[in-house]
Specification:
Helix content is about 5%, strand content about 40%. By secondary structure, the chain is mainly β. The structure holds alpha-D-galactopyranose. Alpha-D-galactopyranose binds next to strand 26 and strand 27.
Length: about 350
Protein backbone atom coordinates (compact mmCIF):
# COMPACT_ATOMS: atom_id res chain seq x y z
CA UNK A 1 0.00 0.00 0.00
CA UNK A 2 1.22 3.51 -0.71
CA UNK A 3 0.09 7.11 -1.03
CA UNK A 4 1.90 9.63 -3.18
CA UNK A 5 1.27 13.31 -3.71
CA UNK A 6 2.08 15.22 -6.88
CA UNK A 7 1.37 18.49 -8.63
CA UNK A 8 -1.67 18.37 -10.94
CA UNK A 9 -2.05 21.91 -12.24
CA UNK A 10 -2.61 25.56 -11.47
CA UNK A 11 -5.98 27.26 -11.27
CA UNK A 12 -6.35 30.43 -13.39
CA UNK A 13 -5.60 32.47 -10.22
CA UNK A 14 -2.43 30.46 -9.58
CA UNK A 15 -3.66 28.21 -6.76
CA UNK A 16 -2.10 24.77 -6.92
CA UNK A 17 -4.20 21.65 -7.47
CA UNK A 18 -2.67 18.46 -6.10
CA UNK A 19 -3.12 14.83 -7.10
CA UNK A 20 -3.04 12.00 -4.57
CA UNK A 21 -2.56 8.39 -5.69
CA UNK A 22 -3.52 5.54 -3.40
CA UNK A 23 -2.27 2.11 -4.50
CA UNK A 24 -3.20 -1.30 -3.15
CA UNK A 25 -2.09 -4.26 -5.25
CA UNK A 26 -3.59 -4.04 -8.73
CA UNK A 27 -5.86 -1.13 -7.75
CA UNK A 28 -5.06 2.59 -7.84
CA UNK A 29 -7.31 5.48 -6.86
CA UNK A 30 -6.42 9.03 -7.79
CA UNK A 31 -8.03 12.10 -6.24
CA UNK A 32 -7.44 15.77 -7.03
CA UNK A 33 -8.05 18.69 -4.72
CA UNK A 34 -10.25 20.58 -7.22
CA UNK A 35 -13.74 19.45 -6.23
CA UNK A 36 -12.29 16.63 -4.07
CA UNK A 37 -12.61 14.76 -7.35
CA UNK A 38 -12.19 11.04 -7.82
CA UNK A 39 -9.88 11.52 -10.79
CA UNK A 40 -9.25 7.89 -11.77
CA UNK A 41 -9.73 4.35 -10.54
CA UNK A 42 -7.58 1.65 -12.09
CA UNK A 43 -8.77 -1.93 -11.71
CA UNK A 44 -7.98 -5.30 -13.34
CA UNK A 45 -10.40 -7.10 -15.66
CA UNK A 46 -10.87 -10.87 -15.60
CA UNK A 47 -7.71 -11.30 -17.71
CA UNK A 48 -5.64 -9.15 -15.33
CA UNK A 49 -5.55 -6.13 -17.66
CA UNK A 50 -5.59 -2.92 -15.68
CA UNK A 51 -7.69 0.02 -16.90
CA UNK A 52 -9.22 3.20 -15.57
CA UNK A 53 -12.92 2.50 -14.97
CA UNK A 54 -13.93 6.16 -14.68
CA UNK A 55 -14.74 8.63 -17.42
CA UNK A 56 -13.51 12.20 -17.20
CA UNK A 57 -10.55 14.38 -18.06
CA UNK A 58 -6.79 13.98 -17.98
CA UNK A 59 -5.98 17.62 -17.45
CA UNK A 60 -7.11 20.42 -15.17
CA UNK A 61 -8.23 22.46 -18.18
CA UNK A 62 -10.69 19.67 -19.06
CA UNK A 63 -12.24 19.91 -15.60
CA UNK A 64 -12.33 23.71 -15.72
CA UNK A 65 -13.74 24.07 -19.22
CA UNK A 66 -15.96 21.06 -19.80
CA UNK A 67 -17.01 19.57 -16.49
CA UNK A 68 -20.33 17.80 -16.12
CA UNK A 69 -19.22 17.09 -12.54
CA UNK A 70 -17.03 14.16 -13.60
CA UNK A 71 -15.72 12.52 -10.42
CA UNK A 72 -16.56 15.51 -8.28
CA UNK A 73 -17.75 15.77 -4.72
CA UNK A 74 -21.04 17.62 -5.00
CA UNK A 75 -22.63 19.56 -2.14
CA UNK A 76 -23.82 21.01 0.10
CA UNK A 77 -27.00 19.93 -1.67
CA UNK A 78 -26.49 17.45 -4.50
CA UNK A 79 -29.01 17.45 -7.36
CA UNK A 80 -31.86 19.92 -7.76
CA UNK A 81 -33.71 22.38 -5.57
CA UNK A 82 -36.87 23.59 -7.32
CA UNK A 83 -37.01 27.32 -8.02
CA UNK A 84 -33.72 27.62 -6.13
CA UNK A 85 -35.52 28.20 -2.87
CA UNK A 86 -36.71 26.48 0.25
CA UNK A 87 -37.74 27.29 3.81
CA UNK A 88 -36.29 26.26 7.12
CA UNK A 89 -39.10 27.16 9.50
CA UNK A 90 -40.18 30.65 8.44
CA UNK A 91 -36.84 31.56 6.97
CA UNK A 92 -36.48 31.45 3.20
CA UNK A 93 -33.22 30.59 1.45
CA UNK A 94 -32.83 31.82 -2.13
CA UNK A 95 -30.12 30.14 -4.18
CA UNK A 96 -28.34 30.76 -7.45
CA UNK A 97 -30.44 29.19 -10.23
CA UNK A 98 -27.74 27.75 -12.47
CA UNK A 99 -29.97 25.53 -14.59
CA UNK A 100 -32.04 27.32 -17.24
CA UNK A 101 -32.53 30.09 -14.66
CA UNK A 102 -35.07 27.80 -13.00
CA UNK A 103 -33.44 25.38 -10.59
CA UNK A 104 -30.37 25.16 -8.44
CA UNK A 105 -28.42 22.10 -9.65
CA UNK A 106 -25.62 20.64 -7.55
CA UNK A 107 -25.52 23.81 -5.42
CA UNK A 108 -24.15 25.70 -8.45
CA UNK A 109 -20.71 24.24 -7.71
CA UNK A 110 -20.46 25.33 -4.07
CA UNK A 111 -18.14 22.42 -3.22
CA UNK A 112 -17.42 20.89 -6.64
CA UNK A 113 -15.70 24.06 -7.91
CA UNK A 114 -13.69 24.60 -4.73
CA UNK A 115 -10.04 23.73 -4.23
CA UNK A 116 -10.00 21.58 -1.08
CA UNK A 117 -7.16 21.06 1.37
CA UNK A 118 -5.80 17.54 1.60
CA UNK A 119 -3.89 15.48 4.11
CA UNK A 120 -2.72 11.90 4.06
CA UNK A 121 -4.51 10.18 6.94
CA UNK A 122 -3.00 6.68 6.68
CA UNK A 123 -1.04 4.53 4.24
CA UNK A 124 -4.26 3.96 2.28
CA UNK A 125 -6.37 7.07 2.79
CA UNK A 126 -6.49 10.75 2.02
CA UNK A 127 -8.82 13.31 3.59
CA UNK A 128 -9.96 16.47 1.85
CA UNK A 129 -11.58 19.39 3.62
CA UNK A 130 -13.12 22.68 2.68
CA UNK A 131 -14.97 25.43 4.51
CA UNK A 132 -17.58 27.12 2.35
CA UNK A 133 -18.23 30.66 3.54
CA UNK A 134 -21.66 31.83 4.69
CA UNK A 135 -23.75 33.01 1.75
CA UNK A 136 -22.02 30.97 -0.97
CA UNK A 137 -24.46 30.66 -3.87
CA UNK A 138 -27.17 31.72 -1.42
CA UNK A 139 -26.69 29.03 1.22
CA UNK A 140 -26.79 30.28 4.80
CA UNK A 141 -24.04 29.42 7.23
CA UNK A 142 -20.37 28.50 6.84
CA UNK A 143 -20.23 24.79 6.18
CA UNK A 144 -17.14 22.69 6.94
CA UNK A 145 -16.99 19.45 4.94
CA UNK A 146 -14.56 16.54 5.01
CA UNK A 147 -14.33 13.72 2.50
CA UNK A 148 -12.04 10.78 3.06
CA UNK A 149 -11.13 8.28 0.34
CA UNK A 150 -9.83 4.92 1.56
CA UNK A 151 -8.64 2.16 -0.77
CA UNK A 152 -8.50 -1.48 0.40
CA UNK A 153 -7.91 -3.74 -2.60
CA UNK A 154 -10.81 -2.95 -4.95
CA UNK A 155 -12.88 -1.41 -2.16
CA UNK A 156 -13.20 2.38 -2.20
CA UNK A 157 -14.78 3.86 0.92
CA UNK A 158 -15.93 7.48 0.80
CA UNK A 159 -16.63 8.92 4.24
CA UNK A 160 -18.33 12.30 4.39
CA UNK A 161 -18.73 14.53 7.41
CA UNK A 162 -19.98 18.09 7.61
CA UNK A 163 -21.11 20.68 10.07
CA UNK A 164 -22.62 24.13 9.61
CA UNK A 165 -22.76 27.11 11.94
CA UNK A 166 -26.40 27.74 10.99
CA UNK A 167 -29.38 25.49 10.40
CA UNK A 168 -29.08 24.08 6.89
CA UNK A 169 -29.74 21.18 4.55
CA UNK A 170 -26.89 18.79 3.72
CA UNK A 171 -26.66 16.23 0.94
CA UNK A 172 -23.22 15.29 -0.39
CA UNK A 173 -22.57 12.87 -3.21
CA UNK A 174 -19.84 11.71 -5.54
CA UNK A 175 -20.41 12.23 -9.26
CA UNK A 176 -18.10 9.62 -10.78
CA UNK A 177 -19.05 8.35 -14.23
CA UNK A 178 -18.16 4.64 -14.29
CA UNK A 179 -17.43 2.65 -17.42
CA UNK A 180 -16.33 -0.80 -16.30
CA UNK A 181 -15.26 -1.87 -19.80
CA UNK A 182 -12.13 0.20 -19.32
CA UNK A 183 -12.24 1.13 -22.99
CA UNK A 184 -12.44 4.88 -23.41
CA UNK A 185 -14.82 6.04 -26.12
CA UNK A 186 -17.35 3.23 -25.47
CA UNK A 187 -20.80 3.51 -23.88
CA UNK A 188 -22.39 1.72 -20.94
CA UNK A 189 -25.54 0.42 -22.67
CA UNK A 190 -24.27 -3.17 -22.29
CA UNK A 191 -23.59 -2.80 -18.56
CA UNK A 192 -26.02 -4.85 -16.47
CA UNK A 193 -27.57 -3.15 -13.45
CA UNK A 194 -29.39 -4.43 -10.40
CA UNK A 195 -30.74 -2.24 -7.57
CA UNK A 196 -32.68 -2.96 -4.40
CA UNK A 197 -35.04 -0.16 -5.30
CA UNK A 198 -38.78 -0.91 -5.39
CA UNK A 199 -39.73 2.75 -6.04
CA UNK A 200 -38.37 5.74 -7.93
CA UNK A 201 -39.24 9.44 -7.85
CA UNK A 202 -40.72 10.51 -11.22
CA UNK A 203 -39.90 14.05 -12.32
CA UNK A 204 -41.57 16.92 -14.15
CA UNK A 205 -40.28 18.56 -17.33
CA UNK A 206 -37.61 20.42 -15.28
CA UNK A 207 -36.39 17.18 -13.66
CA UNK A 208 -37.94 18.09 -10.31
CA UNK A 209 -39.58 15.23 -8.39
CA UNK A 210 -43.36 15.45 -8.45
CA UNK A 211 -43.44 14.02 -4.93
CA UNK A 212 -44.79 10.66 -6.05
CA UNK A 213 -42.97 7.46 -5.07
CA UNK A 214 -43.81 5.28 -8.05
CA UNK A 215 -43.47 1.49 -7.93
CA UNK A 216 -40.93 0.30 -10.50
CA UNK A 217 -42.72 -2.97 -11.11
CA UNK A 218 -43.64 -3.45 -14.75
CA UNK A 219 -41.70 -0.36 -15.92
CA UNK A 220 -38.33 0.37 -17.53
CA UNK A 221 -37.24 1.45 -14.04
CA UNK A 222 -37.45 -2.04 -12.59
CA UNK A 223 -33.88 -3.07 -11.83
CA UNK A 224 -34.85 -5.24 -8.88
CA UNK A 225 -33.68 -8.03 -11.20
CA UNK A 226 -30.65 -7.48 -13.47
CA UNK A 227 -31.21 -5.65 -16.78
CA UNK A 228 -28.84 -4.11 -19.30
CA UNK A 229 -28.89 -0.30 -19.22
CA UNK A 230 -29.65 -0.23 -22.93
CA UNK A 231 -32.45 -2.78 -22.85
CA UNK A 232 -35.29 -0.33 -22.16
CA UNK A 233 -33.58 3.08 -22.23
CA UNK A 234 -35.32 4.02 -25.51
CA UNK A 235 -38.75 2.80 -24.42
CA UNK A 236 -41.73 5.00 -25.18
CA UNK A 237 -41.85 6.17 -21.57
CA UNK A 238 -42.45 9.85 -20.78
CA UNK A 239 -39.92 9.75 -17.94
CA UNK A 240 -37.14 8.41 -20.18
CA UNK A 241 -38.01 10.70 -23.08
CA UNK A 242 -37.93 13.83 -20.86
CA UNK A 243 -34.49 13.01 -19.52
CA UNK A 244 -33.05 11.45 -22.71
CA UNK A 245 -32.41 8.30 -20.68
CA UNK A 246 -32.13 7.52 -16.98
CA UNK A 247 -31.63 10.55 -14.74
CA UNK A 248 -33.76 9.56 -11.79
CA UNK A 249 -33.62 8.99 -8.09
CA UNK A 250 -34.29 5.44 -6.93
CA UNK A 251 -35.57 4.77 -3.41
CA UNK A 252 -33.39 2.13 -1.82
CA UNK A 253 -34.79 -0.64 0.31
CA UNK A 254 -31.86 -1.88 2.33
CA UNK A 255 -31.27 -5.62 2.53
CA UNK A 256 -28.76 -6.53 5.27
CA UNK A 257 -25.48 -7.84 3.87
CA UNK A 258 -26.47 -7.10 0.26
CA UNK A 259 -25.15 -4.38 -2.00
CA UNK A 260 -27.70 -1.65 -2.66
CA UNK A 261 -26.64 -1.51 -6.30
CA UNK A 262 -24.61 -3.93 -8.45
CA UNK A 263 -23.36 -3.28 -11.97
CA UNK A 264 -21.43 -5.70 -14.12
CA UNK A 265 -19.87 -5.53 -17.55
CA UNK A 266 -19.98 -8.90 -19.29
CA UNK A 267 -16.94 -8.54 -21.59
CA UNK A 268 -14.35 -7.37 -19.05
CA UNK A 269 -15.88 -9.37 -16.19
CA UNK A 270 -15.70 -6.34 -13.91
CA UNK A 271 -18.34 -5.84 -11.28
CA UNK A 272 -19.11 -2.80 -9.12
CA UNK A 273 -21.05 -3.14 -5.86
CA UNK A 274 -22.35 -0.02 -4.13
CA UNK A 275 -23.21 0.21 -0.44
CA UNK A 276 -24.66 3.35 1.11
CA UNK A 277 -26.42 4.53 4.26
CA UNK A 278 -28.42 7.14 2.30
CA UNK A 279 -32.05 6.65 1.22
CA UNK A 280 -31.59 7.19 -2.51
CA UNK A 281 -29.35 6.88 -5.54
CA UNK A 282 -29.48 8.96 -8.72
CA UNK A 283 -28.95 6.78 -11.77
CA UNK A 284 -27.66 9.13 -14.46
CA UNK A 285 -26.59 7.53 -17.73
CA UNK A 286 -24.60 10.41 -19.22
CA UNK A 287 -27.54 11.50 -21.38
CA UNK A 288 -26.22 15.01 -21.97
CA UNK A 289 -22.83 13.87 -23.29
CA UNK A 290 -22.82 14.22 -27.05
CA UNK A 291 -19.25 13.63 -28.33
CA UNK A 292 -18.62 17.38 -28.50
CA UNK A 293 -16.13 17.25 -25.63
CA UNK A 294 -12.89 15.28 -25.54
CA UNK A 295 -12.24 13.30 -22.38
CA UNK A 296 -9.38 11.11 -21.21
CA UNK A 297 -7.01 10.00 -23.96
CA UNK A 298 -8.44 12.81 -26.15
CA UNK A 299 -11.39 10.57 -27.02
CA UNK A 300 -14.91 12.02 -27.33
CA UNK A 301 -17.26 11.67 -24.39
CA UNK A 302 -19.99 9.88 -26.29
CA UNK A 303 -23.63 9.77 -25.21
CA UNK A 304 -23.94 7.28 -22.33
CA UNK A 305 -20.13 7.09 -21.98
CA UNK A 306 -20.50 6.45 -18.27
CA UNK A 307 -23.05 5.86 -15.58
CA UNK A 308 -23.28 7.74 -12.31
CA UNK A 309 -24.62 6.20 -9.14
CA UNK A 310 -24.99 9.29 -6.96
CA UNK A 311 -25.95 8.13 -3.48
CA UNK A 312 -28.10 10.85 -1.92
CA UNK A 313 -31.13 12.18 -0.15
CA UNK A 314 -33.87 12.51 -2.74
CA UNK A 315 -33.65 15.54 -5.05
CA UNK A 316 -35.51 18.64 -3.85
CA UNK A 317 -36.07 17.13 -0.39
CA UNK A 318 -36.18 20.59 1.27
CA UNK A 319 -39.45 21.19 -0.63
CA UNK A 320 -40.98 17.76 0.06
CA UNK A 321 -42.05 16.98 3.61
CA UNK A 322 -42.89 13.41 2.55
CA UNK A 323 -39.28 12.54 1.66
CA UNK A 324 -36.65 11.38 4.19
CA UNK A 325 -35.38 14.68 5.60
CA UNK A 326 -31.87 16.13 5.41
CA UNK A 327 -32.16 19.09 7.76
CA UNK A 328 -29.19 19.62 10.08
CA UNK A 329 -29.34 22.09 12.96
CA UNK A 330 -26.44 24.46 13.57
CA UNK A 331 -23.58 22.42 15.04
CA UNK A 332 -25.21 19.08 14.27
CA UNK A 333 -22.89 16.71 12.45
CA UNK A 334 -23.77 15.12 9.10
CA UNK A 335 -22.05 11.79 8.49
CA UNK A 336 -22.43 9.38 5.62
CA UNK A 337 -20.48 6.56 3.98
CA UNK A 338 -20.65 5.15 0.46
CA UNK A 339 -18.58 2.17 -0.67
CA UNK A 340 -17.79 1.40 -4.31
CA UNK A 341 -16.34 -2.10 -4.43
CA UNK A 342 -14.77 -3.45 -7.61
CA UNK A 343 -14.35 -7.16 -8.24
CA UNK A 344 -14.26 -9.63 -11.11
CA UNK A 345 -16.59 -12.52 -11.85
C1 LIG B 1 -26.88 14.89 -12.28
C2 LIG B 1 -28.17 15.39 -12.75
C3 LIG B 1 -28.20 15.37 -14.22
C4 LIG B 1 -27.04 16.13 -14.81
C5 LIG B 1 -25.75 15.64 -14.26
C6 LIG B 1 -24.61 16.48 -14.73
O1 LIG B 1 -26.78 13.55 -12.45
O2 LIG B 1 -29.26 14.66 -12.23
O3 LIG B 1 -29.39 15.88 -14.69
O4 LIG B 1 -27.18 17.48 -14.49
O5 LIG B 1 -25.82 15.62 -12.86
O6 LIG B 1 -24.63 16.69 -16.11
Amino acid sequence: MSVTRSFYGNMPDGREVELYSLCDGAYTLQAITLGATLQALYAPDKYGRINDVTVGFDSLSGHLEHSDYQGKTVGRYANRIAGGHFFIGDEETTLVRNEKGLTCLHSAGEFSDAVWDASVTSENSVELSFVSPDGTNGFKGALTAKVRYTLEGGRVTIDYSAVCDRDTVINFTNHTYFNLSGSAGSDVLGHVLQMNAPYFTPTDADSIPTGELRPVRGTAFDFTTPHAIGERINNDDEQLINCKGYDHNFCLSRKPGEADVTVYEPVSGRRLSVFTDLPGVQLYTGNFLDSSVLGKGSLPLVKHAGLCLETQYYPDTPNHTGFPQCFFAAGEEYRSTTVFELSIF
